[in-house]
Design a protein that fits this description.
The chain has a domain at 32-99: Signal recognition particle alu RNA binding heterodimer, srp9/1, CATH 3.30.720. A four-stranded mixed sheet has the order 1-4-3-2. 4% of the residues are buried. A hairpin with a 2-residue loop joins β3 (59-68) and β4. The protein has helices at 10-32, 38-46, 81-89, 102-119, 124-136, and strands spanning 33-35, 50-55, 59-68, 71-77. It is an alpha+beta fold and 137 residues long. The radius of gyration is 26 Å and the shape is elongated.
């Protein structure tokens, strides 16, 4: 009797659980942190409403002294100092933009996996035939 059995694969369940946890963590972080324009950050610094900051290469994160809009923490993308100074002189609100390459990274992983899956490299028969060849050879 040669019937194909479908079994419970724990690996898929672990990947699914990790994916859900990743999405939940991402969502919670987005809800708890205010994203503010850099000009707003500079205004809040001048008004002495910022408790502390961490200055990164592309962004500034920190905490307000008192919650603003129900959020205690913030993030602002940095803007070149010379440009910020000139825009401040004219009362222009400005913000930096963080360039994310997440989509390109995701595609670079999914396309090769999709090609392998489409070619049958991941099929059960391909793995079984190669192991039979090793045993028989």
């Amino acid at each position: 009797m040669n019937r194909k059995q479908t079994g419970f694969n724990l690996g898929y369940v672990l990947i699914a659980v990790m994916g859900v946890l990743f999405l939940q963590d991402f969502w919670m972080r987005r809800q708890a942190i205010a994203t503010i324009p850099y000009s707003e950050f500079q205004k809040l610094v001048r008004e002495d409403k910022i408790a502390n900051v961490v200055v990164g290469q592309g962004e500034i994160t920190g905490e307000f002294k008192e919650a603003i809009g129900g959020k205690k923490r913030f993030v602002a993308v940095r803007v070149d100092a010379d440009i910020a100074k000139e825009l401040d002189q004219h009362g222009v609100e400005y913000r930096g933009q963080f360039d994310s390459n997440f989509v390109a990274l995701l595609v670079s992983w999914l396309v090769p996996i999709g090609i392998l899956a489409a070619s049958g490299s991941f099929s059960d028969g391909a793995w079984r035939s190669s192991s039979v060849a090793r045993v028989a050879g």
